[in-house]
Amino acid sequence: MTRRLDIKDETLGMWLGVVGVAMFAITLPMTRLATGSQDAPQLSPWFVTVGRAALAGVLSAIFLLVTRSPRPAAHQWRPLGIAVLGNCIGFPLLLAYALRVVTASHAAVVTALLPLVTAAVAAWVLHQRARLGFWLCAIAGSLLVVVFSVLRASQSGHGFGFEWADLLLVGAVIAASFGYIYGAQVTPSLGAERVICWVCVMALPFTLPATLALWPTQPIATASWLGFVYVGMFSMWIGFFAWYRGLALGGALRVSQTQLLQPFLSILASIPILGEPLDVVTLGFAIAVVATVVIGKRLSQPQAAPVAAPLPAGNGVAARRSR
Asked: What are the b/e assignments for 84-107, b being 16+ CB within 10 Å?
């Protein structure tokens, strides 16, 4: 019975991870809308970073007050602080600056490495282990995503030249991975919803004054404000409700592989948002990546315990006692 409950929790965790990833997937096109490009800038990357965290922080404060949530314990402040640096500041800031320079498809090339980096951080920080087959699937899936992203960038005429914006994206991936895992570390005791809420509230003393100080004075397009509201409400807040709960139920190492779907979901979201076309190559690579996620999940499952050998005939009493 316990094993059945564990399997149900792992399955639910995987689905919650997919929901969170779907919300995060729209972050790339929405951030691009919010910041604009170098040729047509809109909201500044700093304003988008602190503003989205401030919006999520206000919503989080209301949530914590309404639910009468207790304060984190002393040992929980450190992992929460690392999550603040990784998820509230590091990832959105580096991503916003990079998207001012490169396209969303180019950014997907580097951010596609997020599942592998997150899994590696989970193995290191949380001491989670998996069989060799899992790591091979994780590497294969990441390579599929990178090849696909490079192919799309090449077809769009952007190529894949390593420049300073790519260094920003690598930093964003590392920051997000540490934020995810340290947030997941306190989720079982603190609760998934409270983790992201406390992370955003802890950042409020910095993000709220900074948002007011950086409030734009020039006219901003309505689409850019809509992108800003999305990354504040969904990318920074609601998405983490599902994501942290999924990491806690399904295991951070396994659920992190659902991030392999994120580039493809971003491309699907970019059809109505940015007007990008959908082609057969996208669907083909998406199916291949989904296959690596499914296979990797199965290979990450611990092997079933061997069936006990039958007791000798003379141990009838012991057998009856064990029932």
From this structure: bbbbbbbbbbbbbbbbbbbbbbbb
Strand partners, 41: 36
SS3 label, residue 41? strand
Q: Say how far apart CA 225 and CA 237 lie, in whole Å.
A: 17
Residue 308: both structure tokens together: 């006990």
10-residue stretch averages of pLDDT, the chain, 323 residues long: 65 89 91 87 94 96 94 93 94 92 75 78 76 83 79 62 73 91 85 88 96 94 95 91 83 77 82 76 77 73 44 38 39
115, 78, 92, 114: which is closest to 199 by C-alpha? 78
Helix or strand or coil: residue 270? helix
Identify the residue whose tokens are 């079982």: 188
117 CB-near residues (< 8 Å, 6+ apart): 173, 174, 177
How many other CB atoms are found less than 10 A from the CB of residue 110?
23
- Asked if residue 28 lies in contact with residue 172, where contact means CB atoms within 8 angstroms, the answer is no
231/16 Cα distance (integer angstroms): 19
